[in-house]
Design goal:
The structure is a single chain. With 474 residues, this protein is mostly helical. It is elongated and about 135 Å long.
Length: 474
């Protein structure tokens, strides 16, 4: 009993230490992220904020990523705007606090007065007491150019004094009506520049609900042109958000073919990023359009931001096709394996190397390349020994080599590792099949009984013939 309690305490402490280490890592990266944002170091901020988000997926980290993506004065790229819009939407799911904060960052960067008005209203009415909200609202306040106003005030006062002196002298020699007209002209002249500045500061078409409406029958036809994206980046962001929202609603309702239409539009709108193609691949697969899903997955692995899972999905979909596979498909699998191996070696990623070897072994089995299967299995056993996948591959190699002792040992090991009873049974049956033919025959009682009957019958025939022969000789 004491040992069990002791073990429970050790496990609890291990869990606490792991969580504390993760929290410490997230805090460290979060501090680096926030410091880089304050200094305006965009690249550093993006890397640190994304790492903090990877360690701890929380709305504060999502908000930091949005703010980091929007740093700088240069025009936003479609990819950066897309990522910021998606992250803002993800943060919104944690509550209107985070949604309002991210929208305020977007509104400030893009100069969207309507967005700023709505988000600041939410923050002011509900969350003004929070320190981070108070700081954000202060930052959003327009800066009043006091020095500029004072300078112009002094200058205007001097001009007013001079004008008043001249006006008094002029009034002495002109009628009252003429004087009133002159004063009106002076006042109008002073107001015109102010009116002009007010008109220049008014956003154009700010109340348009959607500059790029989506055609549900053919969303891809609604994708803005590159020129339109540059000219109206905020509207382009709205287009992406709405396309993603409609795709997710269709997915939730299991209308996967409809979801794929919207993801087609997202992939076409942001063609240099993998995420749209990844989502498209998933929807097409669920819709049963496997060939089209393979093309989408190929698009994902060829673009920025592709993940190991994209490569695995591509190979899985290719191998889901019936034999014989096309040469081009096998070449695609080989290229994926080579790419993952190169990435693993370049960045020293053991997990990626294991995935690459796993896929290579699948390729070897599909193409019946026994030499390649033995090679990848041997390396996989060094990197990932004792796993169910490694044991099954080692057993397959033993079967190919007709190595009965190794096959039996691996079948027993599979049972120790608690592999499914069906798998263990098949492995044992396979190992049993490697016995010599005569031993396999005698291990089956039906064959053994038949053999005994045959031998007995042959003995009776031989005995009868011998009796008959003796009778004839007598």
């Amino acid at each position: 009993m004491f040992s069990k309690v002791k073990l429970w305490i050790v496990l609890l402490m291990a869990t606490w230490v792991t969580d504390a280490a993760a929290a410490s890592s997230a805090t460290s990266q979060g501090d680096t992220c926030k410091n880089a944002i304050r200094r305006g170091q965009r690249a550093t901020a993006i890397a640190a904020c994304k790492e903090a988000l990877r360690v701890r997926s929380a709305p504060e980290q999502m908000t930091d990523v949005v703010q980091a993506l929007l740093l700088g004065e240069a025009p936003l790229t479609p990819e950066a705007l897309y990522e910021a819009a998606v992250m803002s939407r993800s943060a919104s799911r944690w509550g209107d606090l985070w949604g309002a904060m991210t929208r305020c960052h977007l509104g400030k960067r893009l100069g969207d007065e309507h967005m700023l008005t709505t988000c600041t209203k939410t923050l002011t009415e509900k969350y003004a007491h929070l320190p981070q909200v108070s700081a954000l609202l202060q930052d959003l306040k327009p800066r009043k150019p006091w020095g500029f106003l004072v300078s112009w005030g002094v200058m205007l006062a001097c001009l007013a004094g001079t004008a008043a002196h001249a006006l008094l002298r002029w009034l002495k020699s002109h009628t009252k009506a003429t004087a009133v007209a002159a004063v009106a002209a002076i006042l109008l002249a002073s107001l015109v520049p102010s009116l002009a500045r007010a008109q220049q500061g008014t956003p154009i078409d700010i109340d348009l609900p959607n500059r790029f409406p989506i055609d549900d029958a053919n969303p891809r036809a609604s994708v803005p042109t590159p020129e339109q994206r540059e000219k109206f980046p905020l509207d382009f962001g709205y287009f992406l958000q709405e396309s993603l929202d409609r795709a997710e609603r269709a997915t939730a309702e299991k209308r996967h073919a409809d979801a794929a239409k919207y993801y087609y539009a997202v992939a076409a709108a942001v063609p240099d990023v993998a995420i749209g193609f990844t989502k498209l691949c998933d929807s097409l697969e669920k819709a049963g359009q496997i060939k089209e899903a393979i093309l989408a997955c190929k698009g994902a692995v060829a673009r920025e931001g592709a993940k190991v899972a994209d490569h695995v999905n591509l190979v899985r979909l290719i191998f889901s096709q019936p034999d014989p596979l096309e040469t081009k498909q096998l070449e695609d699998v080989a290229a994926t394996v080579a790419h993952l191996k190169a990435e693993a070696e370049k960045k020293n990623l053991v997990d990626t190397r294991i995935v690459a070897l796993d896929l290579e072994c699948d390729l070897a089995k599909r193409t019946h390349d026994n030499g390649l299967l033995a090679k990848c299995t041997e390396e996989l056993a060094k990197l990932s020994p004792g796993t169910a996948r490694t044991i099954s591959l080692q057993w397959a190699v033993a079967m190919l080599n007709n190595d009965k002792p190794a096959a039996e040992r691996l079948a027993a090991l599979a049972a120790e590792k608690n592999l499914s009873a069906e798998v263990v049974s098949k492995m044992k049956e396979g190992a049993q099949s490697l016995k010599p033919a005569w031993r396999r025959a005698f291990s089956d009682w039906r064959i053994l009984l038949t053999a005994v009957f045959v031998v007995f019958a042959a003995g009776l025939v031989a005995l009868r013939k011998r009796t008959w022969f003796r009778q004839r000789m007598a």
